[in-house]
């Protein structure tokens, strides 16, 4: 199979979908890998590294999209990329379709087979292709929140760890999954006073065990928000209902409960965001203020640390990419229900229930798609 990897074009996105190591593995199995020139530079991989692995460098995205049987990327295809997809082509990347009707319609119109990293599952009930980027975004969230808390950035001027005689920042993390746990680790390490909220008692028990008294757990409901918001310096949104639009857990009215200069970091923004007042921002212009509360809502946070993120993502995606290339998408998905769970759009139809529900559009089951 011909595997194509274009350069990412989302603003300040420096990751790349195929690493030289992944290219080498694919080429050793008899596949052909084509890479857009400069695609890996932002992550520290030069064209020469790909050539050494046996890949071919092409000059333009148009050549990559025209030649490849499978496009492997990082971020959801942008409008100009969606126009280059075609019937029968495989697209393997993050999609986040539930909050994105425009992208969904374009992918349906393309006729391509679109497999979303974020809904591929594993035997333990996890999301193995989302997890590595959630590890990164979770670690970045308190760091970016701490920066936003600084006066010059509109924050209330509170230091995460405080100093002797002055209390540390109060940080609430809503959602104690992969992002939430990584965020808790860093926020606790910075010396903040951390509370993690979740609807899963099993998850709260796990966190209670592993953090051994260094954070507080609280069941996530409306009452908990009303109780916590007036006291928090920072609230990190880290919830997920897989494939679906994020539930809105803090309303615009509730911003009035918060202290002026407090910070919301909405990591769940790629699924539409879990605060009513969130809208996606970029690394170049990451923060804005609503009713005195600062918002940080960058939808591709791991792009900030592109080298770490590219290697971590490549480690996780490679086995699935190889399986798709070796067997073709239909056989690979038929053999592996966890990969099949990644199928979001095929031949003009939505194949992921939560996406169809979120957008009010018809869908078929992924099992129907592989018949
Ligand atoms: N902005 C960015 O650059 C990035 C964003 N993300 C996003 O971060 C979000 C979280 O991802 P993960 O931690 O990997 O998911 P996860 O599935 O590991 O954890 C989500 C947690 O949210 C909890 N939850 C669901 N509904 C809840 C509610 N109403 N209240 C409290 N907790 C609730 C679940 O029980 C689960 O423990 C996702 O939307 C993901 O796409 C991930 C990586 C990068
Ligand atoms: C998960 C995701 O959206 C990202 O890494 O950008
Ligand atoms: Mg994202």
Automatic annotation (TrEMBL):
Its EC number is 1.4.1.1. GO terms for biological process: L-alanine catabolic process. The keyword Manganese does not apply. NAD(+) binds at residues 134, 198, 203, 220, 239-240, 267-270, 298-301. Keywords: NAD, Nucleotide-binding, Oxidoreductase. SUPFAM superfamilies: Formate/glycerate dehydrogenase catalytic domain-like (SSF52283), NAD(P)-binding Rossmann-fold domains (SSF51735). One of its GO terms (molecular function) is nucleotide binding. One of its GO terms (cellular component) is plasma membrane. Residues 4-137 form the Alanine dehydrogenase/pyridine nucleotide transhydrogenase N-terminal domain. It catalyses: L-alanine + NAD(+) + H2O = pyruvate + NH4(+) + NADH + H(+). Substrate binds at residues 15, 75. It is an enzyme of class 1 (oxidoreductase). The active site is at 96 (proton donor/acceptor), 270 (proton donor/acceptor). It comes from the Bacteria. Residues 149-297 form the Alanine dehydrogenase/pyridine nucleotide transhydrogenase NAD(H)-binding domain. The keyword Nucleotide-binding applies. PANTHER family: ALANINE DEHYDROGENASE. Belongs to the AlaDH/PNT family. This is Alanine dehydrogenase. It comes from Sulfitobacter undariae. The lineage of its organism: Bacteria, Pseudomonadati, Pseudomonadota, Alphaproteobacteria, Rhodobacterales.
